[in-house]
Structure formats: structure tokens, C-alpha cells
Amino acid sequence: MRPPVVMIVFNRPDLASEVFACVRAAKPERLLLIADGPRDDRDGEAELCRQTRAVVEEGIDWPCELMTNYAERNMGCVPRCVSGLTWAFERVDRAIVLEDDCVPEPSFFGYCEALLGRHEHDPVTMISGTNLGSKPAAGGADYFYSRYPIIWGWATWADRWRATRTEAERLREVWPALRDTGWLVERLGDRYRARCWAALLDAMCEGNLADWGFDMTWGMWRLGQLAVAPSRNLVSNIGFDERGHSSRETGHPRAALPTNRCPLPPAAPEALAVDGCADAAVFDAAYAFLSKRDPNKPWWRAWYKLRSMISQES
Length: 314
Description:
This protein is an alpha/beta fold. The protein folds into two domains: 1-100, Rossmann fold, CATH 3.40.50; 105-150 and 163-234 and 255-314, no CATH class. Helices cover 42% and strands 15% of the residues. The strands form two sheets. An eight-stranded mixed beta sheet has the order 3-2-1-4-8-6-9-7, with helices on both faces. It is globular and about 50 Å long.
């Protein structure tokens, strides 16, 4: 049986239509739809939410079980994604996850299916479909192992989701005791990257930063696991506009990246270990925002504070 697909949507029916067209072509036997509700102060948003849900509800024309989890009122991106995915993984033991702006290349589904089966019993937290860097995997493999789980189109197992959420809920208890021990340097293999992430983890502990992708990263590190990343980019994020939650910069270098087909079944790396060269490219590409300088954006203003913390510890 093909893995179930989870779609997470909100108020962008045009983008959701593009993602759903890819899901429709893949024809999963089970589709779980998670939707946030409208904000009270946004005129017309209730109708946009209705239209977005209807894209999926009215578009299924193949044998498929549809399960829905809708919020009546707006919960916000992080609470809605976390609660919705927890709901989903109470009903399925594995799934492919797509947000409403993540458009997958057709081979993405077969790639996820193959690697969910291949790594079910390995220390792997998730299968990512995104490659933001240009470094090919070593030895001509079709994927590599990374310390950084990128959540623009991904797949995982229910037990891995629950385990990372458990660790995320213990962050404020565990991180302060680990912060000055060298644990993070050992985990990441690089002092600068460790300092960057220490600042982010501090901000999360203090309640100044909420990001469920960072939660997963922390949980994966605590579990001693890795992420899988493709050698070719398989997912394009088309959501960089004023409607996005955190990706509002039109013309961003990571917006609407081209995709390429992954050979199936994907060729495996020689060993289940981090590919250092490819992983360095992931860090540089995925966290390029660390060097951005735009004081008009709240995210960058928050980063200035974090960067000063890093500088003081250098």
C-alpha cells in the first residue's frame, strides 16, 4: 500500500490547487487534510479557507479515503501544524507530508515510499524531499544523510513524530543543562554551527521563537538520529509572497526552486553516516538567513539579538 499523504492548508486556494494536482496524479489510497481556521480580524478569510478545503474535498476522483481535521477558528501556524500532525499520526503509522505551498516532482512520492520502507528500522527521523544546496551526494548516491531535517515536503513514521515531539516538549528542561557541555559541538561537528544553534535553542527556551521544524531538529539530535535528503531537489516552494507565514520575500533565492526527477528505486549511500560535504552545503543554504541584514523584517531583528549573543561567546 502506498503511504498516506497529509496535506496542510490554510487560506491559499490557488497554491493548494497546484499541490493537490500533484497528489491527485499520485493517487494515494488515504489522504489526510489538516486546515487552520480563519482569523477574526480578516475580512473574507473564512471564504478563502472554505475554498481551500474545497479544492481537496471536491477534487478527489479516484478511490481514496479522505480524513479531515479542521480548526473552526485560527490557531496559528505552529500550533495548527503540530496538533494536526499529531492527529494524523494517531491514525496512520507513516505518511508523506505536504504543506499548501510545497509542489513535489512526481518521483517524490516513489522516493518517499522507497525510503520509508528502507529506513523503517534505522536511526532516521525523516525523509526530506528538498535539496537547497548544490553539492551532490558522495559516490553517486541519490540521497545522503544529514543533521538537518528540511520540512518542505517530507515523510516520516508515527513513532518518530511522537518521539521528536516528546523531546521538543522537554527542551526547556534539558537544553539549559546541556548548553555548556560541548554536546552540541559534538553533535554538529562544528563550533560555529553549534553557536548558531545554541542561540536559536536559547530563544526557543525563552519563548522568543516558535518553529516546529526547529523542534524536529532538536528532537532528532536528542534521539541520535539523522535525516535523509535527496541529491536532487524534488520539491519547489511556491509560497514566497505576502500571504506566507515566514516566507514573504518575493524573489528570494530559495523561492520556486527547479526540481529534478529522482531515479527509482533511489541508489543508497555506502554507509548510514553524515555526508560532511553535502551537509555543510545544507547548513549554508538552509540557514543563509543568518547573514541577511534587513532590519525591517521582524525575523532579522530577532536574529540581530541572537547574533549578538553568539558574538559575546566567541
